[in-house]
Amino acid sequence: MRKGVKLFLPFNLAALMFFGLLAIFSATYGNRFSGLFYRQLFWDALAFSVFLVVSRLSFRFWKAIATWLLLLSLLLLVIVLLLPPVSGSRRWIDFGVVSFQPSEVAKFVIILFLAKIYSESRKNFYIGVAITGLLAFLIYKEPDLGMTMMILGIWFFITFFSRRFDKWILIVLIVGLVILPLLLFFGLEEYQMNRILSFMNPEKYASSSAYNTVQAIRAIGSGGFTGKGLLLGVMNRYGYVPEDHTDFIFSVIGEELGFVGTLTLLMLYSLLMLNIW
């Protein structure tokens, strides 16, 4: 990593965390979720501290432990499938004091493992496909379609930009395009299909599965150029976007900080991608 970029990266991350804290503070101010702000503040501080420590470790260290982390990740994904379902899925391992999703660990591990094997040999493309497929299958069985697609997306971009694909990535994509329609019609649960349909045509499902999406879009649009001001978003304050403290947190930024705030946030994410390029 270039020295100038390495020095700027902590400030970039801190700015993104600051945006997140502002949004959480506003979305939960004065309601039953107000404790989320302090929880987010704690995890941000912990994550930033871990980042500062981990960033000083060499690539050789991560390369040495990548395979062991992969085995641990696979073990956790198998264990979670053996646990009793919660709300129809098996995604969390609960230790009482703290709980976590093994699939979140898998996201980090697959990046490390692919970087390791691709740096060793071009022939490791097949290993990358097999391991990614195994992780994706275990996560899909939880079921967690969104995380499954994310794991596959991570594999695609790392493989593409590492130039380890040759003609085989085209074959995999063609096979994927053939399998995807079959998966959509025969392999998905009803709620998963509803999410896809509501994403493709939110207005049609505005009163049902796409309600939060449509409300979030309206909140963002109502923010105008400079926004209504922190804690002054009507749709945020009066619960017109029910999940604005979680999946739809961006609507809070759009409504209260407007086009200027959302553009600033997107620029910070763009800078982050440039920094880690």
Summarize the structure.
The protein has 277 residues and is an all-alpha fold. 70% of the residues lie in helices and 1% in strands.
Write the layout of secondary structure elements.
Layout: H1 3-28, H2 35-54, H3 59-82, E1 93-94, E2 99-100, H4 102-118, H5 125-140, H6 145-162, H7 168-187, H8 190-200, H9 211-222, H10 234-237, H11 250-275
Antiparallel strand pairs: 1-2
Helix pairs in contact: 1-2, 1-11, 3-4, 4-5, 4-6, 5-6, 9-11
Molecular structure report:
InterPro entries: FtsW/RodA. The chain crosses the membrane at residues 7-29, 41-59, 66-86, 92-115, 124-140, 146-161, 168-188, 257-276. GO terms for molecular function: lipid-linked peptidoglycan transporter activity. It is found in: Membrane. The protein has 277 residues and is mainly alpha-helical. It is 70% helix and 1% strand. The protein has 2 domains: 1-56 and 206-277, no CATH class; 59-188, no CATH class. It is built from 11 helices and 2 strands; from the N terminus they run αααββαααααααα. The protein has a two-stranded antiparallel ribbon. A hairpin with a 4-residue loop joins strand 1 (93-94) and strand 2 (99-100).
